[in-house]
């Protein structure tokens, strides 16, 4: 049996489903309804929604808790539904219930961390250009793996409008580069690991890569207005701190962080990131007060190794 550690929130998820009366609902295969375009509710829709007497903000907060701890597949749905906290309507509530139906069929999904002695940091960065129907701003999505284990993921709306796909993709490299360079420096200063090669960041946009590598003129009509702070990416490449590499869109693992993808694309991405259905390895599971389960496979002598972890703890107690 492969040794490793798993993290899931199955107990919290099942309690959440029961809280909203969705514990017997029919499961769906994607977090959001395909091709559903949401807009802020009108005054009449807001008034009608108030008659339901439900707390939309609290509901979104509950799935946000899942998305930030063990469920990156909920990151884009949470980002989408959070945009309507001020003006929610029945359509937004139905999409929240759709997320719960997705959780109904994936409650045991969690992060699997196999034993790995490597020290590579690999990231995937993607952008969906102008996908906000209201502001025309783009969405950034990125994730990073350390020792082949997922340690970072994020979905966020870009702070300004991009006038080209290349610009949106270039902006999407900025945040993960900054965070991963900090992570690399912290690991080395703490003497946890020595990195043998630059951080690999994969993109599916050739123009972005050519611009960052200096193979394309930054002063062309599509890129000349990009803020100067973004050009630290070029410096990071020149200093051999990161490699910006191309991957086909079919292999872009961060795609599900920027848009609602189909079942096959979602499952392929999650499997590639070791986000698996747990509870089938014979693991020992310990439920913490915060609803986070940490499991470790039995050791070679079949004696279970129990580890408790608290989300808010500064240290891990064994």
From TrEMBL:
Source species, domain of life: Eukaryota
InterPro entries: DNA/RNA_pol_sf
Protein name: Reverse transcriptase Ty1/copia-type domain-containing protein
Protein species of origin: Austropuccinia psidii MF-1
């Amino acid at each position: 049996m492969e040794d490793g550690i798993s993290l899931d929130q199955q107990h919290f998820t099942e309690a959440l489903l029961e809280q909203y009366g969705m514990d017997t609902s029919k499961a769906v295969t994607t977090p959001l309804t395909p091709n559903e375009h949401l807009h802020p509710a009108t005054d009449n829709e807001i008034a009608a929604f108030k008659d339901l007497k439900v707390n939309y903000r609290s509901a979104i907060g509950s799935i946000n808790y899942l998305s930030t701890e063990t469920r990156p597949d909920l990151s884009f749905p949470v980002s989408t539904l959070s945009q309507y906290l001020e003006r929610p309507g029945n359509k937004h509530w139905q999409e929240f219930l759709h997320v719960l139906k997705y959780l109904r069929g994936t409650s045991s999904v969690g992060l699997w961390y196999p034993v790995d002695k490597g020290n590579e940091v690999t990231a995937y960065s993607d952008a969906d250009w102008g996908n906000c129907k209201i502001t025309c701003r783009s969405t950034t999505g990125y994730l990073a793996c350390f020792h082949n284990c997922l340690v970072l993921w994020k979905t966020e709306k870009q702070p300004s409008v991009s006038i080209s796909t290349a610009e949106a993709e270039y902006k999407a490299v900025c945040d993960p580069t900054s965070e991963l360079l900090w992570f690399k420096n912290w690991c080395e200063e703490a003497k946890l690991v020595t990195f043998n090669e630059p951080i690999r960041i994969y993109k599916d946009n050739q123009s972005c890569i050519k611009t960052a590598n200096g193979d394309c003129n930054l002063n062309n009509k599509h890129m000349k207005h990009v803020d100067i702070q973004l050009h630290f990416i070029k410096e990071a490449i020149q200093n051999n701190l990161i490699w910006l590499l191309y991957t086909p869109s079919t292999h872009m693992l961060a795609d599900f962080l920027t848009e609602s993808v189909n079942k096959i694309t979602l499952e392929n991405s999650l499997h590639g990131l070791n986000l698996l259905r747990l509870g089938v390895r014979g693991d020992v599971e310990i439920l913490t007060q915060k609803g986070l389960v940490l499991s470790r496979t039995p050791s070679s002598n079949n004696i279970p190794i129990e580890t408790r972890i608290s989300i808010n703890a500064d240290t891990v107690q064994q």
